Amino acid sequence: MTSKIQPCDAGIIRAFKMHYRRRFYRKILEGYEVGQSDSGKINVLDAINLTIAAWTIDVRKETIANCFRHCKIRSASDVARNLDESTFDKETQDLETMINQCGYRNKIDIDNLMNYAGENEACSEVQSLEDIVGTIIENNAEDDDEDDTVSLEPVTRKEALMASNTLHNFKIQYKNTTPELLDVIRKVRDELQIDLNFKEKQTTIESHFNRV
């Protein structure tokens, strides 16, 4: 019922879930390619980055607008349009291909993956304020028992410059490279080169604080 009256249920959440999972399995395949150990696991930082990319890059404005039109929520000047299912179907096929490439023995069906049984039950239950507070306190207590700290290896400016140069050279040789993509890489390199002094040692975070 809500899929007919609420834009998020009409397709926005569905699109986001599909794009997030597509990026998730793409990351797994990337781990296999570079020989990463435990490539099937992600940490909290990985999940946050995948979420941001799926929402800000993949979920298109047209998809959101069409979902609102589908629910009869539109401005006076809007003309009714049908949801664009062709693009979504193609991206769903790409997701299914990635899952097949992961080589799972008992892989989940793509329809069940997009509409996992019971994943919305917690959102559909009506809880009192006391229950919500109790759940938060309980979850915080469990988090204290587990170390979820994500540590990143420090990257120097020199390493970043070398990496950007390697990426630039790779994309020049790549047959499907677009001028727009190369411009993005060049902008990244420009940012790295701003106020760069090759004669000075790179500062650390401690250098910005006075010793007591």
TrEMBL record:
<feature type="domain" description="DDE-1">
    <location>
        <begin position="2"/>
        <end position="68"/>
    </location>
</feature>
<protein>
    <recommendedName>
        <fullName>DDE-1 domain-containing protein</fullName>
    </recommendedName>
</protein>
<dbReference type="InterPro" id="IPR004875">
    <property type="entry name" value="DDE_SF_endonuclease_dom"/>
</dbReference>
<dbReference type="GO" id="GO:0003676">
    <property type="term" value="F:nucleic acid binding"/>
</dbReference>
<dbReference type="Pfam" id="PF03184">
    <property type="entry name" value="DDE_1"/>
</dbReference>
